[in-house]
Amino acid sequence: MAPIALYPDALLAQILAASAYPTQIVEAERFLQQNPNLKDKELGDAVNQQDWDPSVKALTQFPSVLANLDKDLSWTSELGDANYNQQADVMAAVQVMRRKAEDAGHLQTTPQQTVANQGTNVVIQPANPEVVYVPEYNPDLIYGYPVGLWPGFYPWWGVGGPYLSFGVGFGIGPFFGFGWGWHGWGLDWYHRGLLYGGGPYGFRSRSFYDRNAYFHGNYRGYAPYGRGDRAARGFAAPGRAGGYRAPAGRSGAFGGVSRGGEARGYSSRGRASFGGGGHVGGGGHGGGGRH
Predict the structure, then answer these.
(1) Which of 53, 75, 71, 74 minimizes the C-alpha distance to 63?
(2) 170 membership: H or E segment, kind and range
(3) In the chain, helix, strand, coil percent, each to 5?
(4) Distance in angstroms (rounded) separating the CA atoms of residues 61 and 191
(5) Nearest alpha-carbon partner for 1 in 115, 92, 93
(6) Is the confidence at residue 208, as pLDDT, over 50?
(7) Beta strands in 182-275 (DSSP E)
């Protein structure tokens, strides 16, 4: 959780949900690469026609975030697996790391975002409700103690100190009319769950088993959502007997892939930072920072 624990709550919710759909993340990133001229409402209309999960559609508002999830597909897949099976633990880990960053003096309210303590929970929100800044930081330094890289992780940050930095904000106004837009997402810190559309988010991914339910004999399965997320290597379809997981050490749907660009043989993306992006302009395509 270290690379994303300090992101605004709604963006974190989108990432956690979308990480269960790694093949859709690949498709969405490729879609943005192939349609660089789509912006604002036109982009929203085009994305709305795709059969991706709402969380993946939501991340097209933040192209640099989507690009970095695509770069680290193995980690993204592990994140999806962990959140699918241990969501309360994942959210608890986020709170632990936010408090560590606060205690170290590296997480506080800025002109770009507000940081508030609500009971034992640290809540992060945009300072301007129509502009979202994605923080860039070095997770090995910002928490006050060294956090090693996930095996095979490709670092996307370009900062060296233990502080947050911000690029140009992403204007989210053009996406307000879509249910999957920014205001559809949130985190319920007290019940440790993702929120979408005013209620709990329901996973429809076919990439991961509900291991807890499976091993306790009450596996519930999930109804298909359109084509769903294509069955991933090492996982049987939900509800199917014999749901054995190959004990290969790396447990995600893309366990053998460390960088999406290398795995698929295209590398035209460049190195977008989370502080900005390769799509310049307003309405979610704004972005500064390094490439």
Answers:
(1) 71
(2) strand 170-171
(3) 30, 10, 55
(4) 27
(5) 93
(6) yes
(7) 185-188, 193-196, 199-200
Kindly report the pTM of this predicted structure.
0.74
Q: Say which residue the tokens 């749901």 belong to.
A: 243
Two structure tokens written together for 167: 């690029």
Strand 165-166 to 185-188 pairing: unpaired
The residue to which tokens 């989108």 are assigned: 14
Q: Do 133 and 126 form a contact (C-beta atoms < 8 A)?
A: yes
pLDDT, averaged across the chain: 78
Radius of gyration of the chain (CA): 18
Q: Which helix (H) or strand (E) holds 131?
A: strand 131-132
C-alpha dihedral (99, 102, 107, 111), degrees to nearest 10: 110
253-287: b (≥16 Cβ within 10 Å) or e: bbbebbbbbeeeeeeebeebbbbbbbbeeebbbbb
First to last CA, the chain: 23
250-276 pLDDT tens trace: 344 544 343 433 333 333 333 333 333
Give the Cα-Cα-Cα angle 51, 53, 55 (nearest 5 degrees): 140
The phi-psi region of residue 284 (left if phi > 0; otherwise alpha if psi is between -120 and 50; otherwise beta) is left
Alpha carbons 236 and 215: distance in angstroms, whole number:
15
